[in-house]
Each structure stands twice: as C-alpha cells, then as structure tokens.
Recover the amino acids of this structure.
C-alpha cells in the first residue's frame, strides 16, 4: 500500500515517469538475481557435508518427490478454481514449489524443530 502511494505521487513530484517505470520493470530481475540468491546462500551456509550425507535419503525424497507433489497439487487446484489450462497451472505450481525451501528455512529458524 505504501509503495502504491509513492507510485501514485511520482507524476506530481517532477520525476520523469518513463524513467521511474523502467526502474519498476527491473524489480523482478533484482529480486531474482540479488535477493533470492542471498536467501538461498544464507539458508545453506550453516549446513555441514556430514549432516547432508547422513540424511541424504529423506532430503532426496522431500526435494524431489515433495516438490513434484506440490507442483501437481497446485496445478490441479489452480485449474479447478480458475479454469486455466493445466499446463499453465503446472507452471504456476513450479514457481510456487521453487520457493518452498526458503519458506522452510525461515520456519525452522522461528520455531524449535527437533533434529530428526
């Protein structure tokens, strides 16, 4: 909401609107190329190779099977609710499933989770 108010006031402040909108169009690239890599690095920074090797099977299961199941469930839900083609809904599910590891990392930091 705050960002919308700033965006609405841009023509009145004297900025060149076209230049400001070009910056706004670059925000998805900034998020994809700057913010998400920082978050992924921060989540994996504390991992030790020994821990990963001991838990390789559960990690592999949830990383592969869990993401595929998430993509399919989201795709079916989006198709049934919004009546879009199934392939488009699967692509949307892929976008959402790709952000799951970051969300899980944040949840693990907020709440005490047992080691196993």
């Amino acid at each position: 909401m705050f960002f919308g108010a700033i965006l609405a006031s841009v023509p009145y402040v004297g900025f060149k609107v076209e230049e400001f909108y070009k910056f706004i169009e670059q925000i998805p690239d900034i998020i994809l190329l700057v913010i998400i890599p920082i978050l992924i690095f921060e989540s994996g920074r504390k991992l030790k190779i020994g821990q990963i090797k001991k838990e390789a099977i559960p990690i592999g299961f949830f990383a592969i099977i869990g993401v595929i199941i998430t993509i399919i469930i989201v795709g079916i839900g989006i198709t049934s609710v919004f009546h879009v083609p199934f392939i488009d809904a699967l692509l949307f599910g892929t976008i959402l499933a790709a952000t799951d590891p970051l969300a899980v990392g944040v949840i693990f930091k907020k709440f005490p989770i047992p080691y196993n």
Summary: The chain has seven helices and no strands. The mean pLDDT is 78. Residues 56-82 form the longest helix (27 residues).
